[in-house]
Amino acid sequence: xxxxxxxxxxxxxxxxxxxxxxxxxxxxxxxxxxxxxxxxxxxxxxxxxxxxxxxxxxxxxxxxxxxxxxxxxxxxxxxxxxxxxxxxxxxxxxxxxxxxxxxxxxxxxxxxxxxxxxxxxxxxxxxxxxxxxxxxxxxxxxxxxxxxxxxxxxxxxxxxxxxxxxxxxxxxxxxxxxxxxxxxxxxxxxxxxxxxxxxxxxxxxxxxxxxxxxxxxxxxxxxxxxxxxxxxxxxxxxxxxxxxxxxxxxxxxxxxxxxxxxxxxxxxxxxxxxxxxxxxxxxxxxxxxxxxxxxxxxxxxxxxxxxxxxxxxxxxxxxxxxxxxxxxxxxxxxxxxxxxxxxxxxxxxxxxxxxxxxxxxxxxxxxxxxxxxxxxxxxxxxxxxxxxxxxxxxxxxxxxxxxxxxxxxxxxxxxx
Amino acid sequence: xxxxxxxxxxxxxxxxxxxxxxxxxxxxxxxxxxxxxxxxxxxxxxxxxxxxxxxxxxxxxxxxxxxxxxxxxxxxxxxxxxxxxxxxxxxxxxxxxxxxxxxxxx
Lengths: 416, 106
Fold this sequence. Notes:
The structure holds two protein chains of two kinds.
Chain A: H1 6-13, E1 32-33, E2 35-38, H2 42-55, E3 60-63, E4 79-80, H3 87-101, H4 103-107, E5 118-122, H5 125-140, E6 146-149, H6 150-156, E7 172-176, E8 180-181, H7 184-197, E9 201-203, E10 208-214, E11 217-223, E12 226-230, E13 233-235, H8 241-247, E14 255-264, E15 274-277, E16 282-286, E17 292-298, H9 310-323, E18 332-342, E19 349-352, E20 358-362, H10 372-385, H11 399-402, H12 409-412
Parallel strand pairs in A: 1-12, 2-3, 2-13, 3-9, 5-15, 13-20
Antiparallel strand pairs in A: 4-8, 5-7, 6-7, 10-11, 11-12, 14-17, 14-18, 15-16, 16-17, 19-20
Chain B: E1 3-6, E2 11-14, E3 19-23, H1 37-44, E4 53-59, E5 67-73, E6 79-84, H2 93-99
Antiparallel strand pairs in B: 1-2, 3-4, 4-5, 5-6
């Protein structure tokens, strides 16, 4: 892999930028791999990258039915934070936040991680009590956080409506200054380029149609490009995890739902942070291009349609317009949906299964983007050692049998 | 937005009148204390979550306030039928596969 640098940019400018090395190869699949990762999104590519980099396992294929990073990696609102309530979740997400900080250097690829801070608004007395509890829990876990009142929120976001006469007035917020946003495509491409440089085969347009097992152990996968053998198969397929599990007769505690987001036309800089509200299901930040990036809630029903309902968008935009009256005249440019894998306790599943050599990393639901590097890092450990990383251990499938659920609906909610 | 036919009201109304309440035909174990943790977890949390034909319950919250079943395609969002509680679906993934024309490449 040729390194990107200021010098290489200058050098290639002399040849009109026509001779850049391709960011990754497009290899034909081999007959057999040590590990097959199904799903070429952020989490799958991060898993491949850390498998090669940390554990030295490079005979790996990432199989992607569409194109790299074309699923939920391309469909989220790019928010990164780690202010989760419970110890298990805060360790996992803060591990991820730590990796984010050096990710651009590590990958030699600018993921445009911008720690511009994240506000989680409270609109009722109970919201504020929950926020105080969560911020206290965060601080005990070494995660920065403060509780702000209305005036302090107004100072950070001058355009917010601080009137106490609206239906859901802003009573305050939690503030995580180390949270922020990153560039979603760059994250997928950076991990892809990094994994490829270690010799990982990234195989696109290759849909897995069946997972083949013999005597309770995985032997490979049937794909649209033929059979590919491997004794370790890792499913990192987000909304399609239930479909993958059904191939081997497993069921998961997951339901797939459409989640929507939308962006406005580009406007001048107006919000330099991330504003989220679980209570009214709205969150907004501004991209470097100037678009307001707005996230809505999930549809209530199971769906694989990658589109959402209009009344969900209407609900979110009415909340946005109440919080930011000046946005009422901004036109929306594009809206889209992604299929998210929601779990009963709003926490992921990073786990072995009852079938030897079959692993799942799924259930990230509405908030997986922030965890991309951490998820890949701990899952790679699980794959390499056939034993869960300490941070991943509480997130096993077995927690649904034992009852050790990690209820993060308060911190995860719908808003991400 | 779905337009859903309520089999009790015998009218087609907009989705906002209804609440989705999850997969249908899940029977509560008769003696929870007698079954294994795995079987109890399967009842509580594990779902089939298919991409395709799904039998699910909806609640007519702003209408008759009764639960009923819907057979819906989770990929195309087509609603094939709605039927009352206690009834069984007449359209299933298997019955649609059989009805598909022979030699269909899909």
